[in-house]
Design goal:
6 helices; alpha/beta; binds iron/sulfur cluster; globular; 32% helix
């Protein structure tokens, strides 16, 4: 066990000091989680090449226990959204996010995933994956370097360190909710906007039925 997992607040007899570590449940639990964050194996565009480089031998994120990229969302802890998020792709991204078990995290890697990037005004591009799934860490750059991605992953570890089993949303009963999967038709429709549509339709019908 590393020194950072133990605390010196509770005195340990000198003869047992090398054999006993006293720590909190949060600290040992988060230490194990942050040391085995498995990413979901998928990429969307050019940023994915940098993500692949980060996994290769020069940068090697297996040093952080992250080398086991999972082809199934059911075995993944973090979704690295690496690339341009198109309207055609976002339903699949949300579906994959919903299939990941909690606790789960999302990294928006690069300008495209964070806010649309150079294609922000494009007819087919979502201006940020956070419009649909909650993002924990944003990594700037076009593309971000492998060092930047590693920095983002370290920031995610710091976030995990700060969570408590008593207060984190994952551990509260009845707080787990799937994100409604957007529908792609002539344009993208977010089911969460339905009440807004109903209001607008009602207002329009009232306008049309009012004599001029
Ligand atoms: S941020 Fe830049 S490098 Fe990354 S997917 Fe968008 S255009 Fe490509």
């Amino acid at each position: 066990m590393s020194e950072t997992t133990s605390t010196t607040e509770i005195p340990i007899p000198e003869e047992l000091a090398s054999q006993i570590a006293i720590t909190s449940l949060d600290k040992i639990y988060n230490w194990s989680r942050r040391s085995s964050v498995w990413p979901l194996m998928f990429g969307l565009a050019c940023c994915a090449i940098e993500m692949i480089c980060t996994a290769a031998s020069r940068y090697d994120f297996s040093r952080f226990g992250m080398e086991v990229m999972r082809p199934s969302p059911r075995q993944a802890d973090v979704m690295i959204v690496s690339g341009t998020v198109t309207k055609k792709m976002i339903p699949q991204i949300v579906r994959l996010y919903n299939q990941m078990p909690e606790p789960k995290y999302v990294l928006a890697m690069g300008a495209c995933a964070s806010g649309g990037g150079p294609f922000k005004e494009g007819y087919n591009v979502v201006s940020g994956v956070d419009k649909h799934v909650p993002v924990d860490v944003y990594i700037p750059g076009c593309p971000p370097t492998p060092q930047a991605l590693l920095h983002g992953l370290i920031k995610l570890q710091e976030k995990i360190d700060g969570q408590s089993v008593l207060s984190a949303r994952w551990y509260q009963r009845g707080t787990s909710e799937a994100v409604p999967v957007p529908l792609l038709g002539p344009d993208l429709v977010d089911p969460r906007d339905y009440p807004d549509f109903a209001e607008k339709l009602k207002a329009q019908q009232e306008r049309e039925s009012t004599p001029a």
